[in-house]
Design a protein that fits this description.
Structural class: alpha+beta
Distance between the termini: 61 Å
Low-confidence stretches: 486-491
Shape: elongated
Number of helices: 28
Mean pLDDT: 79
Helix content: 40-55%
Strand content: 5-15%
Length: 884
Amino acid sequence: MKPLAWFRSVAAKFFHRSQTAEDLEEELRSHIKLRAGDLERSGLASAEAERRARIEFGGYEKFREESHEARGGIFFETLMQDVRFALRVLRKSPGFAIAAVVTLGLAIGANAVVFGILNGLILRPLNVPQAESLYASEYGDGAGWQSYPNYIDLRDRNRSFDGLAAFSFAFAGLDTGKDPSVATGFATSGNYFDVLGIQPYLGRFFHGPDERGPNSAPYMVLTYAYWHSHFQDDRGVVGRTVQLNRHPFTIVGVAPPGFQGTLLFISPDFFMPIVNQGQVTAGFYLNDRGNNAGVFEVLGHLKPGVTPAQAVADMNAVRAYLAKAYPKESVHESSTLSHAGLTSFRRPAQAFVAGLMLLAGLILLAACANLGSLFAAHAADRSREIALRLALGSSRKRILRQLFTEAVLISLIGGAAGLLGSVVLLRRLSTWQPFEGAPVHLPVIPDARLYMVALGLTLVSGFLFGIVPVRQVLRANPYEIVKAGSSSRVGRRMTVRDVLLVVQIAICAVLVTSSLVAVRGLTRSLQSNFGFDLRNTMLANINLAMAGYSIDRVPAMQRRMLDAMETTPGVERAGLVNNYPPLAYGSGTRTNAFKDEITDLRQSNVAAMPYRYEVSPGYFDAAGTRLLAGRSFNWHDDKNVPPVAIVNKEFAGKMFGSVTNAIDKYYKLQDGTHVQVVGVVENGKYLSVTEDQQPAMFLPALQSPSSQAYLVVRSRRDPQQLAAAIRNKLHELDAGLPLDIETWSNLLAVVLFPSRVATISLGVLGMMGAMLSITGIFGMAAYSVNKRLRELGIRVALGARRTEVLEAALGRAFKLLAFGSTTGLVLGILASRVLASIVYQATPRDPLVLAGVVVAMALLGLVATWIPAQRALSVDPMMLLREE
């Protein structure tokens, strides 16, 4: 038959089902009538002839179903019959249906949320044209920082990119004539928007020809979100002049709504030319080749036919040239490429999301094992019904199709519930601001890819747990089941349900282990020696450049601020640290240090690369940092005396061998400056709590003044009252001074944010695993007790003790619990490397973690078996025997 004719035939049968059914019924009845007529002519009575004809014809319903299938076109009809029957079955077992839907909904929801994060951070490209060919460079050991002159050479000398753009960060006080506020911007190269290929929403962008040297392009482009929230969609904003750190900048345009910069999780408020960054960032020297913090990232589109490997080789050749041409300012470090959006954050983000995907996958697997066990038990409870259907002529294929329909229906309902919950959570995450005032966002808005993955997981899950009872249906003997009745015997051999329960418990043990490891790792992080005392310490972020102070006026103003703090009631000590203090936003500046006798200041001769801080007198007392040897700074350590420094214990050991040898010794900086060590302080943490011990040096703020500083204030007063007192004192000095006051603990929360997110995520997954384990053990124990009530009653009647009854009823469940828990604990120990990539100081070999897992799994077993145990102990043998 030709395809078109077949389609017409099927369509006719589908749209004219009633006529087709009547014709088929008439045909089947005619067969019976003809045979009955033959038997009646042979001498049988009419009623007996019809009865004999029906017996000889066989199963009427079976032949009708087979005839329907032979005629074709009944797929949708039988599918709707299966769906209606499945709904009736689930309505009769509401407990089973609710447990199955909730279990799968939690598992699908967890996987959808994790995939949404993976999709938003790693898989989804930036919202720019031809994003698939846009690559960003990672210079050196995963960091994109480099100097602006190096970027210019790389842009002009490479042969792999159509164009290379650069950007860095700019934090400035933005004054529009109303209320001045702190805004976050991207300082970009002039060709930034041209390389990305985007068009403005309003006005125009700045371009390469606008750059004619330092401070030559006082232009500004607003992001759409900032224009919408701060300028109320005023289209007349183009051409307006505003103040950035008291410097006039002209707003020339507004970026399109979908463009939020080239970092996925940071949304800037504005864009400005990098050639003008010196006006908003004190101490920024555009043409200083040694300023390796001049450019954060370089990115561009690869030329057609150029592979990333070829581009990396090209970039490394340029780096080698720069290192040879400028040995003191440049060093040849290997470069790598990755798709723009995360750059140096990609590796930790990938490790974290991959770990979560693995654990979320285990959650789904545990849920499927749980549902498989429940579904098999549910099918076993319906064994008499299935046997009757087989005896009446139904095919095993049709019964299996009915069971799969039930499984898929449950999975679709559970998947829809889980997807709905994940969409709500992801939308909340997309608007979540973890740090007040920080331009951080998570681009995890659900899209079509998320829906397709959720649908795929739903269908696969339904197939996985729906396939479990296939074997028992295929091997079922309807005549033995009908004769045996509903009281089936619980065997001693290992069943599929037992295996699924062991798998589920093992997965739960792995999840519980990972959550306890995360909590333990975070606790260790908080108990680490930071090298300063967080308690009773306030930090005031003050950028004098935002208030219009020139660099020569900064030292005097900072001295006045410290004097004002010393006279504030309740303040014990106050000090200043330029730029960011240790463990602030994960930021830190490192510099090269050489032994004093070295004359060739090349990178290969570097003795240490310490973190560098400029601090005022009183800082170490205010920070609670112990002085181990020598002296602290005083107000005489200014530009009129030779350079001095205080170093930490690690620096003293690397450079001079010991703490005592370091005092009054000299070392050199990259520019050849001789620095004398006048003191040694204790070691600490400077960039992150996960770092190994690092060297650090502290220079006098008076010898290297900076307008950006943190005021460190130690006091035992209430933080809110102290913050108000600090604000009042400083505003007495300058009412227009922008201030951001918080505790040091809150600042540290930014650094600990990844560990806390990991701990919360693993804790939630661990709780979900525990819930699945409880339902699985409970289902197995309750099913076992229910099937053995008669046996337990006989045992009680014969005088069995309570412990013997519990052993008979729940011994198998406890054995499976012990075996599964041990397996999961071993797997958790073997997965220590995976856990270590997610949480700091993670080790499942910790005795407290091991003990916690054992106790947790034992408690889960007790909770899950409590109700079945009570039912087993309350068995009344006389009632059971009377029922029998």
